[in-house]
């Protein structure tokens, strides 16, 4: 008797992307390695210690909350590692290590564990940690170091090894023959906003300026494009952020010719790092095609508004956190209508 062919039915989804959380997070870590390596070359031992401290504090905090919650270890999903790396890249190169450890603990505790762990956190954990230390240590978070200073591979920036709750070293001290006075650098955004002084475009693109650890626009762009081509981030988010930032700064420059132009806005500060590596976080960003565009435009608008009209010279961190908070509402507004549903019917 001829055997009949069998039809196997399975529940949806029937297609599999071939990528899981671990693989995506691991690739994000690989993509940040060149950015971190370039930062170490720019600032030397202090940034290397900053990166190690941020990552270790995040990993240890993650493991602690796993044990307290009687859950298996989640260190293998790479999420705590990427939180530590991104956190370090948002901090000043000479940020005290004990404050960095506090930022790492807060990032995992309040930005992730408090909400139930990976996939349930509404805000970007690295930015939660950064926001906390900006409020708690306003002087240290705004103390900048010019890049490529002499002696960066043989000594630490004086403020790096400051003991907990102690005053940083006096500004008149010397490190390897380099006056610490030269360490009191201002960022390009601060120079433009408060002194109306321009910064060479080449320095902005390469990150050869005073600022946070990860501000090399060119290196960040290349690493972000790697993730986009691997389809491990939604390219529409960073493109929408950059488009909104460029358009609004161009439009305002038509009204106020002395205002910074689009290229300055795009390449200065933390815009590139925030757009490609933080705003694109799958947990805190919308899932609908229209939603991700609205989300990106909102972040770009808030960034430009803070930079031009706010009391602070940088607004990327607040823009992304506000965008994260608005994500559920954006998703609700932009959900496509279910096929066959009656749009006139009201819900009970």
Report on this model:
The protein has helices at 21-43, 45-68, 79-89, 97-109, 125-136, 188-195, 201-206, 217-229, 236-255, 262-267, 271-278, 289-309, 316-334, and strands at 174-175, 178-179. The model is unreliable at 171-177 and 179-184 (pLDDT under 50). The protein has a two-stranded antiparallel sheet. Helices cover 53% and strands 1% of the residues. The protein has a domain at 21-143 and 147-184. It has 348 residues and is mainly α.
Count helical runs: 13
Low-pLDDT segments? 171-177, 179-184
Q: Tell me the overall shape.
A: globular
Strand order of the largest sheet: 1-2
Can you summarize the main beta sheet? 2 strands, antiparallel
The proportion of strand residues reads under 5%
Helices and strands, in order, run as: HHHHHEEHHHHHHHH
CA-based gyration radius: 22 Å
Q: How many individual β-strands?
A: 2
Q: What share of residues is helical?
A: 40-55%
State the separation between the terminal residues, measured CA to CA: 57 Å
Q: Helix- and strand-based class? A: mainly alpha
- What is the arithmetic mean of pLDDT? 86
Features:
single chain; 348 residues; mainly alpha; 2 strands; 53% helix
Report a brief summary of the structure:
With 348 residues, this protein is an all-alpha fold. The chain contains 13 helices and two strands, in the order αααααββαααααααα. The radius of gyration is 22 Å and the shape is globular.
């Amino acid at each position: 008797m001829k055997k009949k062919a069998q039809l196997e039915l399975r529940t949806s989804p029937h297609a599999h992307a071939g990528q899981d959380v671990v693989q995506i997070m691991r690739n994000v870590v690989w993509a940040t390695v060149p950015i971190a390596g370039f930062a170490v070359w720019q600032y030397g031992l202090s940034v290397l210690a900053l990166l190690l401290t941020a990552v270790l504090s995040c990993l240890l905090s993650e493991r602690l909350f796993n044990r307290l919650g009687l859950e298996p270890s989640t260190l293998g999903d790479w999420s705590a590692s990427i939180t530590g790396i991104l956190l370090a890249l948002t901090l000043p190169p000479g940020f005290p290590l004990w404050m960095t450890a506090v930022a790492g603990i807060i990032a995992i505790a309040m930005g992730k564990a408090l909400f139930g762990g990976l996939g349930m956190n509404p805000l970007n954990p690295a930015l939660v940690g950064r926001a906390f230390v900006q409020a708690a240590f306003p002087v240290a978070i705004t103390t900048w170091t010019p890049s490529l200073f002499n002696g960066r591979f043989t000594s630490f920036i004086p403020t790096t090894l400051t003991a907990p709750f102690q005053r940083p070293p006096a500004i008149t001290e010397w490190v390897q023959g380099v006056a610490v006075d030269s360490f009191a650098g201002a960022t390009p955004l601060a120079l433009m906003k408060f002194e109306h002084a321009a910064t060479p475009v080449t320095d902005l693109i390469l990150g050869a300026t005073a600022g946070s650890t990860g501000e090399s626009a060119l290196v960040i762009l290349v690493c972000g494009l790697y993730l986009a081509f691997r389809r491990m981030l939604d390219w529409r988010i960073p493109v929408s952020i950059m488009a909104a930032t460029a358009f609004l700064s161009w439009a305002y420059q038509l009204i106020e010719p002395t205002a910074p132009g689009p290229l300055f806005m795009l390449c200065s500060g933390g815009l590139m790092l925030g757009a490609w590596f933080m705003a694109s976080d799958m947990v805190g960003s919308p899932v609908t095609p229209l939603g991700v565009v609205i989300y990106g435009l909102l972040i770009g608008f808030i960034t430009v508004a803070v930079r031009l009209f706010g009391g602070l010279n940088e607004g990327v961190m607040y823009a992304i956190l506000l965008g994260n908070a608005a994500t559920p509402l954006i998703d609700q507004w932009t959900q496509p209508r279910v096929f066959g549903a009656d749009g006139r019917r009201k819900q009970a």
